[in-house]
Amino acid sequence: MNGITIRGYRNVKLSFSAPPSKSYTHRALFCAALAGGISVIENPLLSDDISVTCSALEQLGIPVEQREEIIVVEGCGGVMTGPGELEIDCRGSGTSLRFLATFALLHPGRVTLTGNERMKERPVGELAEALKILGGEIRFTGIPGCPPVEISGRLAGGRVLIDASKSSQFVSSILIPSPFADEPVDIIPKGHVASESYLDITLEVMKSFGADVERLEDSGFHVNPGIYMPRKYRVEGDYSSASYLFAIAAVCGGTVTVDNINPESVQGDRVFLDALAAMGCSVLKRDDFISVSREGSLSGTDIDMSSSPDTVQTLAAVAVFADSPTRISGVSHLRYKESDRIGAIERMVKGCGSGFEYLDGEIIITPGKLHGFVLEPEDDHRTAMSGAVIGLGTGGVTIKDPGCVRKSYPGFWDDLRRAGL
Fold first, then answer.
1. Which of 10, 38, 116, 136 is the most exposed place for a label (fewest CB within 10 A)?
2. Collapsing DSSP states into helix, strand and coil, what is residue 387?
3. CA distance to 246, 330, 340, 353, per residue, from 346 (Å)
4. 310 counts as catalytic
């Protein structure tokens, strides 16, 4: 598709099913790959990023079979048998590349990780420095600190301090393979950890596969040598993707109900529902669904989104419909995502007629006279879906390259069509 134009709607009454979580699917794949036997991942997300991880695992000698509603992984028990030297193209999947960086230290040969042009600008230098301390040999062949990166050596273990201010995935990357290190691993994050709530997801999945991992009093982690046990693992629904669905109720008025979502999930993007409630929406949570409704006007809010980065753009899309300013703090690390998401939010907010200001890690969005516009998402799935939210509230918004949503929510446009939007 070259472009899609969104019409405006009022007073909706819609039901959706949340797509499976990309974060949980990635982590389950890596844990299953290291388990000693066959694991079945049920209700996985089947998206471009997940395909990258599956292909990478197969290159490393780990059989992965994707079926319609399951992924079957024949784990290696921590012993890989793939070719001696490999180059793995992670395309646009930052999660795949970062998680593979430590994983590659369990491989007997040199592994080169590369990706698309944007990936070659995304920093992993802090992770590389930590891996050197743990026994890795790291060499960057392009921009210093950015892919392509050659990785060899071994995962010896020990104690490491790591700067995770750009991404909590640096910590998760080390955590997941650590049961197979030669010695126990202690990981101590330095300073603020970006998107820290995602570490709760990592620990939850690791423990479900049998890892011996614990949090330390200094906000660090201790992992004892051990094994992962093969198992059936069911992936829960994704709050990041569901945020666009909940946002429809906020910008259009009416009610949106979403099932396949865990009200007690550790996903940090649950805070998006708190933001909607603070802005004037009603949120109803039950064991098997969550409903968001709006009848009156929307007011602005002041919220720290440092642990829920993947819903910042969705909240910005809702904020343009509020009758007072919205301040979103804790967002400086959005510069290092699939695109510069702070710049993407500015283009989106100004494009529809609202005011935008960014200063010291805070975004301020002020009301304006809303109108349609053309949005170029720059191959960023979250920008495209957030722009669609604005379109459903205003009408006349054209999203270029709508196919980029395949990265995390391949069925997004189909779900909107099935709902009559």
1. 10
2. helix
3. 22, 16, 10, 11
4. yes
CA-to-CA separations, 79 to 75, 132, 400, in angstroms, rounded: 9, 21, 44
Cis ω before 108 (30° cut-off from 0): no
Helix (H) / strand (E) containing 52: helix 48-59
What are the tokens at 278? 């603070």
The helices-and-strands tally (H runs, E runs) of the chain is 12, 23
Cα separations in angstroms, 418 against 194, 302, 381, 414, 415: 36, 34, 20, 6, 5
- The owner of tokens 């490999």 is 86
Spell out the per-residue pLDDT of the chain, length 421, in tens: 579 999 999 999 999 999 999 999 999 999 999 999 999 999 999 999 999 999 999 999 999 998 879 999 999 999 988 778 999 999 999 999 999 999 999 999 999 999 999 899 999 999 999 999 999 999 999 999 999 999 999 999 999 999 888 788 999 999 999 999 999 999 998 877 767 889 999 999 999 999 999 998 778 999 999 999 999 999 999 999 999 999 999 999 999 999 999 999 999 999 999 999 999 999 999 998 999 999 999 999 999 998 888 999 999 999 999 999 999 998 887 876 777 889 999 999 999 999 999 998 899 999 999 999 999 999 999 999 999 999 999 999 999 999 999 999 999 999 999 999 8
| Residue 279 token pair | 């802005």
- What radius of gyration do the chain's Cα atoms show? 21
Q: Which domains does the chain have, with CATH numbers?
A: 3-20+236-418 (3.65.10.10), 22-215 (3.65.10.10)
Contacts of 408 (CB under 8 A, 6+ apart): 19, 22, 45, 47, 49, 238, 240, 241, 381, 382
Residue 41 is which amino acid?
Answer: I
DSSP letter for 233, please.
Answer: E
Helices (H), 187-332: 197-208, 239-252, 271-279, 312-319
Cβ neighbours of residue 418 closer than 8 Å, sequence gap 6 or more: none
Three-state DSSP state, 226: coil
Catalytic residue among 49, 89, 238, 310: 310
pTM for this model (two decimals): 0.93
